[in-house]
Structures are given as structure tokens and as C-alpha cells.
Amino acid sequence: MIHLQDITKVYQTKSIETTALNRINLQVEAGEFLSIMGPSGCGKSTLLNIMGLIDEPTAGHIALNGQQITAYNSRSMARFRNEQLGFIFQSFHLIGELSVLDNVELPLIYRKVSSKDRRKMAEAALEQVGLKNRMRHFPGQLSGGQKQRVAIARAIVGQPKVILADEPTGNLDSVMGNEIMNILLHLNQEQKATIVMVTHDETMARKTHRLVRLFDGSQVL
Amino acid sequence: MIRHILKLIWNKKRSNTLLFLEIFFAFAILFAVFTIVTRYMRQYNSPLGFDTEHIWVVHMNFDNITDTAAVEDMKLRLKSELEAMPQIEGAAYNGWISPFSGSNWVTASDANGFDTETSILMAEPAYFELMGLELVQGRWFDLSDLEGRYTPAVISQQFYEESFKGRNLRDSIYELQGENRIVGVFKNYKYQGDFTKEENATFFMRHPKDIDLPNLHLRIAPGTPAAFEETVNKTVASISRMSDFTIEHLETTRKVQNREVWVPVVSLLGIAIFLVINVAMGLFGVLWYSISKRRAEVGLRQALGASRGAVMGQFMGEILAVSVAALLLGAVFAVQLPLMEVFGIAPLNYYIAMGLSAGLILTLVLLCTLYPALQAARIQPALALHEE
């Protein structure tokens, strides 16, 4: 499903060259729940961003569903992200001025779905994460766990093939973290969603199918 | 998308209020300036109706004369001697109210069974051709009309359209200044100046010797040197034996009078340009600030599938929607002025000013939004999301 070949990412300034990722080769199969672990600054999020087509590698090839991403232009990549990928971030990234329902509807706005259908789909996604009763609330009125559940609803509302989660439990306490992890496991098991999750938490990582460890930009496991 | 943008604007109404007010007040001020400028420019562009180039006016004063017959003889002699000069192509007397004099005499009446309101002007028959007025109906009066019972008059087209359209002019006598026979209609005569509006005007005929006609208009041959004024001066002085007459160059007076309007109009436009620059800078600043505060949101939207075009469209759409709302509110207030027909300004001037102000502001908003919106579209999503 996702095939990364010799992915290298180098950040270059005038005086310093920093290698964030060094020749990473990784294959993620459909329906797999993969976790990526490693110390801070080892390149986990960079790798996830490259997988999510929101960052570009300095070298290497990405293939998604067998198609080389280099063939995509900016508009095609935006459409691909919209239709095939769902993002969950550590800091939720909800838009404070929009209600929970409107936040969840956001990916559908870029997909020309009618407002009636958007609303239906967003309500269904919120029901899946148990937040339908909060859909008129604004992010500022929610707890951290609730915010992350909204973010999950937003990630799944467009029924993407892959969910990319960047430390989804990183800002939550253990109870809420478990709650979020259970939702992700449920999505993987029941809906066969492919999930790639970056985490610091060994316990969470062990619940996934496969664990990839990074150190100083290189894959060590 | 439009609904989404409107929802965002509504939910961020507090932060949008400043922009809304800025656009609203900019519109209000531009509307006021453009109304004044439009009014003046439209009046300026409407024809003056008579020539000013190569026209000199000898202003004489017959207020304290005792021997009317002598003055009448003097007037005819003066005209004839001046007309005999090769540098003078023609001469004609008109009444106290000469072009650009700042004087006017208006009379209103319903004695004819309908309302009439007109400026009263007096001239001898030769005046119209000398001044280049355009006849659109009937004829100019001539000296043979003096033998008739009723004083002949020619009226302006505007006066005709306003009060006499569909009425019989040829065989009727109307009460204007006494009983008058209207013999012709002329096109325009904006004797108050280029920047004034056309007024209803009526010329009544007088004999050139009449002391009611103290201003002698001279058409000077092109190429005549300015020094010729001295010759005219000496001739007038010797024939009239007066010392308090003046010689006016009508074109110069016109230019001086116009300058008195141009200066405030240009100043107003200067203020408007200053305002426009301020609004542009304000808009630019607000947008830069807004985008810098919303980098993470831009990154998020791109991650969720927004193309660069969609990001640009979103920012431009938000600003345009706020601007259009402010302009609509401004238009609601502005439209009251033409509806109530206040300040004596023609409604079309208000509507043109509204269109110009709204068009200018929208253009400005689009231009000021374009670059920041383009910058927003170029934000690297991974970087923007990481920053937060």
C-alpha cells in the first residue's frame, strides 16, 4: 500500500546540513497497523509527513497503491491526501472558530460533497467516536481526549485508505490515551483501516501489528 | 465552500469587525468625495454653450447717467467704431448678467397655468451669433421684432423641455417677464461657469442702444496681439468719456473661475488617494497578521486536501465577503441620499459615486489580498503544522 524506497531527508542551512532521514526503506501493507518509535528528533514525524505527502524527501521514491508519487503535481497530491489519507496530530489541530461538526466536515469541503451529505457523513464519524452529542460545541469547550476524538472523526470522515497519526496520545493522560488507542484499534480491526502511528509510548506501540524503530534518522528495527 | 467561508467569518466576527469598519468608513468617505467630484466633472463635461476664446467684454456702468439719449448714441457709435477695426470680428451688447459675472436673476411664475422658473437675461440680436450659441428650434430674434407688440424671447432647451414641451410656441404668448413671444430655443448657456449646472434661461430682446445692456462683447480675430487691448481701451475711453469701464478676457476669467473649483477638487482627490493608500496598507497589514496567525490552519487545510488554489480562494473569499458586507451596509446608507434627493445633487451622481467607490474598494481589496493569499498558499504544511 505504501512503499518507501531509500527515503532521505536532509535539512540544509548555510552552515549546517542535518540528515533527518537516511535511506529509509519501508513497506506498509493494506490493513496493517504500524507504529514508529524512536527518541525525539530521530525523524519519526518527518517520515510520517513524507508518507502523508505534506513534506518532500530529498532523495528516494514513494509509491502509494503502486503509483509513484513523483508523477503527481501539487493539485493531484492535494486530491490524493484528501481522498486517500487521514491525519491525526498530537496537538489536535482543530480550528477553534468552527464547531465540532464543522471541523469534522472540513476534508469533505475540498471534495465537492453537498452540504447535506457532508453533515450526514460528519455526524456518522462523530457517532463512531462517541461525540455526536457534542457536535454543536466548539473545540475550546472540549477536553483533550474529546478534541482528539474529534480529530479522529475528521480523519475518518472521508473514509481514507490510510490514517497517519502523529503521537495521537502524546498530549493526553493514560486514561484518555487508552481511549484514543482503543478507537484506533477498533478502526483497524473493524474497518480494516491502514494506520501508521508515531508514538513515544512503548505500551501503545506494542498494541499495533508492527513496530519500526528509528534512531538518528536511520531505521534500526 | 462559500457557506464554510461565511460560517468562519461569522464565528470570527470580532476579529473581522475592524476590517468591516475600515471598509465601511473608507466607502463612506470615498462616496462623499466621489459624489462631489462626479457632480463637478459631469457638470464640467456638459457643454458651456458659448465661446470664450477670443471674446473680450467691455463692462460699462450706466448707473448714474442723466442723459439717456446721449448714452444710447454713444453706445451705437462705440459699437460701430470697434466693429470697423480689422482686429474685431464682431460686437454685441448684453445685459447686466454677463458670463461668469457671478450674478443671476431668477423669476418663477405660474401665471401661464403651469410652473415656470427661469433666469432672466437680456441681449441684442447680434449677441447669439457673436457668442456662438446653438439654435435648436425656431429663430433668434432680430430688430424687426421690436415692431411687434410682445417682447421676443428665446429660451434654453432645458427650460423648453421642463415647461414647454408639447406646447405651441409659435402662436402663443407666455407670461415670463411681462407678455412674451418665444421665438426660438437654444441648446446651452452655462453662463455661471463650466462647473455649474445648466439652468433654465431666457433671453429677452433689447435694442443695442438700450442702457439695460452695459456689456459690450467683442470677438477678436485670432492672432491679434494682447497689445491691441490698449487700442480698445483708448477707443472706449475716448468715445464713452468714462474711466470706470473694464476690459475682461472671457477665456482668462473662465480659467480663473475653473481654477477655484479645480483646487478643492484636486485636494479632495488627494485626500481620497491618501485614504486609499491607508486602506491598502491597513488591509495588507491585517492580512499578513491574519496569515501569520493562521499558518497552522493553512498547514492543516493543505494536509486535509486543500490545493494551493483552495487556500488562496479561502483567504480572498473571506476578505471579499467581509468587504462586500461592509459595502452593502455602506450602500444602504448611501442610497438614501439619491432617494431623498438631498443637497440638490442629481441622483445619477450619487449612483456613479457609489459604483466608483465600491469598485475601487473591491479592486483594492483584491490587489491587497492577492499577495498575502499567494504567500499563504505557498506555506509548507509540514513546517506550519510543526511550528504549532
UniProtKB/TrEMBL annotation, chain A:
SMART domains, sorted: AAA (SM00382)
InterPro entries: AAA+_ATPase (IPR003593), ABC_transporter-like_ATP-bd (IPR003439), ABC_transporter-like_CS (IPR017871), MacB-like_ATP-bd (IPR017911), P-loop_NTPase (IPR027417)
UniProt cross-references to Pfam families, sorted A to Z: ABC_tran
Family matches, as PANTHER family: ABC TRANSPORTER DOMAIN-CONTAINING PROTEIN, LIPOPROTEIN-RELEASING SYSTEM ATP-BINDING PROTEIN LOLD
Protein name from the UniProt record: ABC transporter ATP-binding protein
One GO cellular component, as annotated: membrane protein complex
Annotated source species: Phaeodactylibacter luteus
PROSITE patterns: ABC_TRANSPORTER_1, ABC_TRANSPORTER_2
UniProt similarity note: Belongs to the ABC transporter superfamily. Macrolide exporter (TC 3.A.1.122) family.
GO terms of molecular function: ATP binding; ATP hydrolysis activity; transmembrane transporter activity
UniProtKB/TrEMBL annotation, chain B:
GO molecular function: transmembrane transporter activity
Localization (cell): Cell membrane
The organism's place on the tree of life at top rank: Bacteria
Main location: membrane
Domain ABC3 transporter permease C-terminal span(s) in chain numbering: 271-381
Entry-linked Pfam families: FtsX, MacB_PCD
Membrane topology: Multi-pass membrane protein
Bilayer-spanning residue ranges: 20-41, 261-289, 310-336, 348-371
Keyword line: Cell membrane, Membrane, Transmembrane, Transmembrane helix
Keyword Cell membrane listed: yes
InterPro entries membership: ABC3_permease_C (IPR003838), MacB_PCD (IPR025857), Macrolide_Exporter_MacB (IPR050250)
Annotated ranges, domain MacB-like periplasmic core: 24-205
Any one of the GO CC terms: plasma membrane
PANTHER family: ABC TRANSPORTER PERMEASE YTRF, MEMBRANE COMPONENT OF TRANSPORTER-RELATED
UniProt family annotation: Belongs to the ABC-4 integral membrane protein family.
Protein's name according to its UniProt entry: FtsX-like permease family protein
